[in-house]
Amino acid sequence: MTGAPASAAGGSGATPAHRGGKLGAAAVNQAGLWNIANILTMVRLLLVPGFVVLLLHDGGYDPVWRSFAWAAFAVAMITDIFDGHLARTYNLVTDFGKIADPIADKAIMGAALICLSSLGDLPWWVTGVILFRELGITLMRFWVIRHSVIPASRGGKMKTLAQGIAVGMYVLALTGPLATLRFWVMAAAVVLTVVTGLDYVRQAVVLRRQGLAAERYAAMEAVTAAADSGACPGAVSAEAGAGAAEPVRGSRGAAEAER
Questions:
Q1: What span, in angstroms and rounded, lies between the C-alpha atoms of 160 and 40?
Q2: Of 164, 153, 251, 166, which Cα lies nearest the Cα of 197?
């Protein structure tokens, strides 16, 4: 409909200038959904039910089936590393990826923790602490997203790695020294989970205060500028509202830069 193949339109990223421009842009965006980063995210989402079935097969105590479950969990963790990297490196960031990627992360980790606790391999309080932290930080990101984006810290990345290793060791039917080692790895993961969670809370509070202060300052500047120019009260209010809304648009643009 745009006079060019969808693949060509997707490669150039240009919006057709003729009357079918809007339709062409929609086709480009639709084609952009099927990129390697999003496909890896979809694979990770599909692995979640498969992982649960493998882990709980035959009562959840068959070492062979738990090895299969570990393989599925390992693939999910590996794709988690690569899909975000590919999206940022090759400009494959999409709205679907920004929503589905964190959902896939929480889904595979949450499924593993809940299954392990239901089997009696992992205390429920450990599962509760990790899931509370992950869900709480996700909600907090939405709380401050209109002001700024909370960047992923080095501690947060270490937390994710520690959680993945610890949960993977619990998925395997380990005994002896390795079973003792996985306890300490999980303990380190829990400590990192709590510490980084508190740090994210601190960052969120600071960013929200700064964002609110910036909005108030922008509104005051708009009112002052309008008053100096002799604008009518209606124009002053409109300009103040536009000034206050500007940080919001900027923050959303920053949020769209991350997957």
A1: 18
A2: 153
For 123-138, write each residue's pLDDT tens digit.
Answer: 999 999 999 998 888 7
Contacts of residue 50, Cβ cutoff 8 Å, sequence gap at least 6: 72
Q: What is the pLDDT of residues 83-127, one digit of tens each?
A: 877 877 888 777 787 778 888 888 999 999 999 999 999 999 999
Provide the 8-state DSSP code for 14: P
Report the alpha-carbon distance of residue 111 to residue 37 in Å, rounded: 22
Residues with Cβ < 8 Å from 169, sequence gap 6 or more? 178, 181, 182, 185, 186
Kindly calculate the radius of gyration of the chain based on its CA atoms and give it in whole angstroms.
24
How wide is the angle at C-alpha 59 spanned by C-alphas 56 and 103, nearest 5°?
15
Token pair 């105590």: residue: 61
* DSSP code of residue 146: T
Residue with token string 């992950």: 134
| Count of H-run helices and E-run strands, the chain | 9, 0
